[in-house]
Amino acid sequence: MSERLTKRSSAQSKATPAPLAAEIRLALKDGGSASHAKGVQWAFKDEIKSHGWRTADLRRAAVRIRRDIRENHGLDFLVRVADKLFSGTVLEEKIAAVFLLEKFDRKFDDEQFRLFESWLDRIGSWADHDALVHDLIAPMIASKPDRATIVFRWAKSPNRWHRRAACVALIRGARVRMFFPEITKLSDFLLDDEDDMVQKGLGWLLRETAKFDADKTLPYLMKIRGRAPRLVLRTACETLPSDVKAKILSTSVQPKASERTRSKIT
């Protein structure tokens, strides 16, 4: 499958971004697996469009295409092709767009960061969301920490994917012990969010923070255990020692929604 996709895209040596993206879309459709596409759906609550590519196959194909496009057209052209792909409605198109650009975060500047931020409005599922935010946006925030302030704007958005992005965007930094003040401030604000996608994103962020900076994070988890949603705490505690996990979860008390007061982000 990946060979077919690579050959098809490579044939467009003098292409502009739009027709090349269209060729990649067609190859993705032809190279997928209908039976695997049906199996993909079980991971999603809402219906998604999928061509049934396995992640490893898709990544290998994207890497080959990336090499070809960069050699013939340069990085800016590659970004424009990815922008066209991420405008689609099919899961593999969006994941392929991210695979084309991953690991180039240090070569991108604020213009590309704003472009990738605009892609948040095109999100259709947690899968394309996490690919975009974890693999593109989060590394750019970790490499330029003053970008982290943007997560507080996203946290106020009525869009669930912006609020989830506020959490996931700090994960790469959390893994190198960055952003602890920002993480706790963000967490305090989002603890009362009732959207499960946001709660899972926040739990994921706190889990990674606890894994790499337990000395600071465990006291914070104990502090919020009476207010945090159970889903957030369970996810945050996944990698903790069983006795610590039990202590945090056993003392968890869920106040009524009417009794909770949402923290303010200024």
Tell me about this structure.
The structure is a single chain. The protein is mainly α. It has a domain at 1-101. 65% of the residues lie in helices and 0% in strands. It is built from 16 helices and no strands. The protein has helices at 2-10, 17-31, 34-40, 55-73, 75-85, 91-101, 110-118, 126-143, 150-155, 160-168, 171-174, 180-190, 196-212, 214-224, 230-236, 242-250. Helix 10 packs parallel to helix 13. It is globular, with a radius of gyration of 20 Å.
Pick out its properties.
single chain, mainly alpha, 16 helices
Give the number of helices: 16
Largest sheet: none
Task: Find the count of extended strands (DSSP E, 2+ residues).
Answer: 0
Task: Please state roughly what percent of the residues sit in beta strands, choosing from under 5%, 5-15%, 15-25%, 25-35%, 35-45% or over 45%.
Answer: under 5%
**Mean pLDDT across all amino acids:** 90
Question: Uncertain runs with pLDDT below 50, 5 residues or more?
Answer: 255-261
Q: Terminal Cα separation, in Å?
A: 50 Å
Radius of gyration: 20 Å
Percent of residues in helical segments?
55-70%
> Structural class given helices, strands, pairing?
mainly alpha
What topology does this entry show?
Blueprint: H1 2-10, H2 17-31, H3 34-40, H4 55-73, H5 75-85, H6 91-101, H7 110-118, H8 126-143, H9 150-155, H10 160-168, H11 171-174, H12 180-190, H13 196-212, H14 214-224, H15 230-236, H16 242-250
Helix pairs in contact: 1-2, 1-4, 2-5, 4-5, 4-6, 5-6, 6-8, 10-13, 12-13, 13-14, 13-15
